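Folded chain entry
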Amino acid sequence: MPAQQKKIIFCIAGVLSFACALGTAAAIGTQLWVKGTILCKTGALLVNATGQELEKFIGKIQYGLFHGERVRQCGLGGRPFQFSFFPDLLKIIPASIHVSVILFCTVLIIFALVGTGFFMFNAFGSPYETLHGPVGLYLWSFIACSCGCLIMILFSSEVKIHHLSEKIANFKEGSFTFKTHSEQFANSFWIILVCSLVHFLNALLIRFAGFEFPFSKSKDSGTITGAVDLMY
């Protein structure tokens, strides 16, 4: 492939990697990871609410990695409540999983920026044969893509397996019991998915630019080298 086309491909990959870093950084600070509704089970049972009457007992909840908001409704109107994970909810959430999600988000941002630098270096500089060449480009893209996948797996397990929304809904509730009525992953979660796919796409762009996969050697070169060695 001509050098000019390689530069264009590396520039595109670098821009995509930088956009992923910015997107992940923006996603960390929002409370748009999970949106859902919560049902005041105690209040609904007291009045035996059914059908449209249940709407008076269905509140809302949304949260991210650091903070969130819930609106509880027990038949007397909505009452908003702001909360933060640190240090308020540390005793009721799976803290190790939650901290791991934040850690992998940070690693994803770092390696996305590192990948951006190496893509631009390969586009406008003279790449070395080690980490500045194809091996490094594949490495940074693979690490960033893996971190994105781990973030989604860990956060999904925290929400679905450990019933995070229900634990938050019942935080500091003495006489009322809340149950998750519906929940869905919001924009910030899907940004991580898009970033993972982009880093996988970058690996394909590297291959499309003409770089072989790392540590791969053609059989022909090996046989020719062996024949030359036998001559001496």
Remarks:
- The CA atoms of residues 31 and 68 lie 5 Å apart.
- The longest strand covers residues 178-185.
- Confidence is low (pLDDT under 50) at residues 221-232.
